[in-house]
Amino acid sequence: MYREKGMLVSEDMKMSDVILHNYYLLIMLEHFDMSLVVQEKTIKEICQENNINVEVFLAFANLFNGFGYRPINVYSAGDLDTIIKYLRRSHQYYLEEKCPGIYDFIKQLSEVNNTPEIKMLDTFFEEYVQEVTEHLNYENSIVFPYMLELFSKSRETIVTPEPRNYSVTEYKNQHKDIEEKLTDLKNLLIKYMPQQNDRQIRRRLLFSLFEFEYDLHVHSQIEDSILIPLVEELEKQLKKR
Questions:
Q1: Is 132 in the same domain as 207?
Q2: SS (H, E, C) 61-116
Q3: pTM of the predicted model, to two decimals?
Q4: Cα–Cα distance measured from residue 97 to residue 240, given in angstroms and rounded to the nearest whole number
Q5: Residue 14 forms beta bridges with which residues?
């Protein structure tokens, strides 16, 4: 997904300056369970207050600012808990706020535009939400507990049997791109679906879809480029023990 690059974020920058440069970082702070009132504090100071590895925060922030992930930092097993908590909060935001909000926009659109094509959006998005829900529930109930169990075992001094008959490779092989259908939905609204007195609500719907798509894009990069390699390394270390 394309996004023009913003500033490259570093730990000595004021958090307020970074937020004002890219408002997408507000939702990132929320996913980290950080306060949105940041005063004049630097990123490093706020990360220390929240017990978050500043390198993890910077990696995520620079993904939101349009920079591809650059694997120059080594994360510890202890960062796994932070990353998974972030992803779980993201899931909650998608299912409890973002998807219902988009669905409301679609309902409003169908009320002012009675064409058959617009009414198809309702079914299209319902099916999409069901697919997303299944994907996120799988991560919440199977993948993340497995990863946290690995983290727990990595802290043990005595070697114990391998947790479950599962590997992160299984997750990696079936990891879905749940952004694609949002692109299809945007294209339908922009290119093909007739407009009938719905310009304002259509614009709000499109803005919401763009925002959701971008958050999902960063979410997938975090899982593919940071989380999965971290867990793969943890699996290797435990096998050696």
A1: yes
A2: HHHHCCCCCCCCCCCCCCHHHHHHHHHHHHHHHHHHHHHHHHHHHHHHHHHHCCCH
A3: 0.89
A4: 43
A5: 42
83 and 61, same structural domain?
Answer: no
pLDDT tens digit sequence for 202-215: 999 999 999 999 99
Tell me the per-residue pLDDT of 101-134, one tens digit each, with 9 for 90 and over.
999 999 999 999 988 888 888 889 999 999 999 9
Range of the domain at 67: 1-73
Same domain, 20 and 124: no
Give 122's contacts (C-beta < 8 A, 6+ positions apart). 106, 107, 110
Please check the confidence at residue 2 and state whether its pLDDT lies above 50. no
Closest Cα partner for 43 from 27, 65, 61, 66? 61
Token reading at 182: 């949002």
Q: How far is CA 58 from CA 28, 53, 115, 169, in A?
A: 11, 9, 46, 26
Tokens of residue 146, six digits:
């497995």
- Tell me the HSE value of 230 on the side-chain side, using a 13 A CA sphere: 26
The verdict on 57 and 98 lying in the same domain is no
